[in-house]
C-alpha cells in the first residue's frame, strides 16, 4: 500500500513537471512577442506566416484579442509548423482552445519537410478531425525519409481509412530502404487498393537486397496489375541475388511489358544457372539484345562483387587487414562466413565449423580466406556465358585477376564445349546484333588475353574485324575505348587481317565529315607517325591517301604543355591521396621511401592539414616526422597511422634547377574532409594531384567530393578552368575513368592513367620524376619530350597499359573537348546575333 501511494505521488509529480514545462514554453514565447496593441503596427512580413494567419482567422467566433494572440504565436512558428497548423485549422473540431492544444504540440514536435508532406496528404483523407490529427502528429514524426515516401504512396490508394493508414507506419519503418522503395513501386500499380497493399507490404518485407530492387522495377512496368504482381512475388523471393539484380535492370527497359516481364521470370531468371545457359541460346535476336543490355547495364554491381572477393572486405569494399581480422571474435568470423554462397559454405564448412568449436580463430581466418577466394570463382561459374561476355566487355573495370584468372578461363572452357572454340560462331550466337563485340575484343587485347580466343587464320580474323568495326565506331565513347587498345589489336593481327581493318577504317572515315570520321582519321594518322613498324607498305599507302583526302591534322598542338605558367612562381606542388588500408599504406611507404632516398626533406604540411593544430600538437607531429625521417624503415608505418588518426598531412621538399618541388602526402579521412582538401588544391595553386590505392576508392577520393563541391558552388567552373593541371591515377582503371575525370576537370587536365593494373614501380618514379623533368627542362618541352625523358620508367615492357599525357587517347579527348567548346561558342554567337537583330517585344 505504501509502495502504491509512493508511485502515485511520483506519477503526479511527473505530470506536474510536464505541465510546468509547457507553461514555461508559452511564457517564454509570450515574453518575446509584442502586445496586442503593438502588433497592429507590426504586421506579418513573412509570406508563409501571412498565409497561415489568413487561414487561422477563418476559425469561427475568434475575438480580436484571440486573433492578435494567434498572430503573435504564428510569427514564432517555423515554416514546417506553419504548414501543419494551416491544415489543422481546416479540420472539424478547431476552435481557439483546440488551437492552443495544437500550438502546444507543435512547440514540442518538429517534423521534417517529408513528414509535413505526409501529414498534409494524410489529413486530406475522409474522417480526419482535429483530435485524430493531434494524435497522428507524433506517429508521423517517426517516419524516415523513405518510409515517408512509401506512406504517401499508400495514401494515394482508394479506400484508405486514416486510422488504418497510421497503423502502417511501424511496418514501414521496420523495412530496409530498398524494401521501402519496393513498396513505393507496389503502390503505383493501377488496380492496387488498401487491402491488397497491406498483403503486398508483408510480401515485400520478406525480400532481400536485389530481390527488393527487382520487385520495385517489376511493379513499375507500365501495364502491371496486382494479379501478375502477387503471382510473381514468391518467385522473386527465390531468385539468387545475381539473377535478381539482372532482372531489376531488365525490367527497367522502356519497352518492357507485364507479360514479357512475367515470361522472363518463369522462363529464365527462376531457372537454375545451367538451364539459363541453354535458355539464352533459344531466345530470338531481340530478346538476346534486351538481356545482353541488362547484363551490361548491371555489370558494375557484379564486377564490384567479383573484385571484392579478391580478399576479405567490408561492405564498402574496404580490404580488412590481417591485424584487424585477428581482433575479430568467433561470432564475427562466423557472420562473415555466412555471407558466402551456399555451395562454398557446404564445402568449407566441414573445416570451418570444427575450428570454430575449438575456438581456433587463426584456423577460422585461414579457412575464411580460402573460402572467399573459392566464392569468387563460384560467383563467376553461376553466371551465364552471355553475362560473363558482358562483364568482360567492361574489362577495364575488372581487376586483372578477376579478368584473366577467373572469368576468361570459365568462358574459354564453355566456348570450347559449346562452340568448338570458334570465336566468330560464339559471337554470332551470343551477340547477333554486334552490340558489345568491339568492347569485348579490345578488352581481351588490352588484358593480353586475345590470343586465348582469337583464330589464327586470316578469313576468320576478318569476320571478327567486321564485327569489331560495326561495334567500335558507334559513338565517341566506343571510339575512345577502341583507341586505347588499338595497338594491342594491331600487334596480334595477321598482316592481311591488319590491312583489312585499316582499309575498313579508311572507308568509315570517308563516309562523312562528322567528329567520328575525324577521330578515325586521327587514330590512323597517329599510328602512321608513332608506330610505322606495325604497318606494312600497303597500310601506309592507305593511310597516306586518306590524309591527302581528309587533310592532315596538326597533332603537335595537342602535345603542348602548360609548364611556362607552372614555373612562373618558382615552385611546383603536388598532393597525393592514400587510403587507410593495406594497399594505401604500402603505396605511402614506397612513395615516401623513394622521395627520401632522392634527397627530399620530410616536414609537416600546413597547406593540407585541414584543421588548426595547437603548439603542443605541432611539436608532437614534428617529433613523429623527424623519427620517420631518421628511421624510415621502422617509423614510416607509425607516421602513416598518426596521419590517419590525427588528421595531419606531411610534405617532402627539394630544390631542383632553382625550382622548389613540394610533394604533399595525405591519408583519406572522410567525405567532408576530402571536399575541403580538393577545395584547397584547386584554390591553392598546386599543379598535380595523385590518387593512390585501389580503384574503388576513386569515387570517394575524387569524383564524389568534386561533384558535390561543384553542385554546392564551393568550386566554380572558373576555379576548374583557372589552370591546366596534372592528374596521376595510380589505381587500376580504364578509359571510362579517364574520360570521366577529363570531363570533371572540364578538359583542363593532363592525365597519367592505366587501363590495366596500377603498379607502384611505375607510379612512384613517375610522380617524382615528372616534376623534376619539368624543373630541369625548357618550358617549351612537349608531352612527347616528357615521355622520352621518362621512358626509363617503362623499360623492359613495364607499364604497357599506362596512358601518358600526349598519348592517342589524350589527343582524342582534347579534340573532342575542342569541338565541344567550339560548338558552345557558335551557339553563344548565334544567341547574341538573335538578341541583337531580333529583340523580344515588350
What can you tell me about this protein's structure?
- The protein has 842 residues and is mainly α.
- The protein is 66% helix and 6% strand.
- It folds into five domains: 25 residues; 142 residues, no CATH class; 95 residues, no CATH class; 152 residues, no CATH class; 242 residues, no CATH class.
- It contains 44 helices and eight strands.
- The chain has an eight-stranded mixed beta sheet, sandwiched between helices.
- Helix 3 packs parallel to helix 5 and helix 9 runs parallel beside helix 11.
- The chain is globular, with a radius of gyration of 33 Å.
- The protein starts with a helix and ends in a 5-residue tail after the last helix.
- The N terminus is likely disordered.
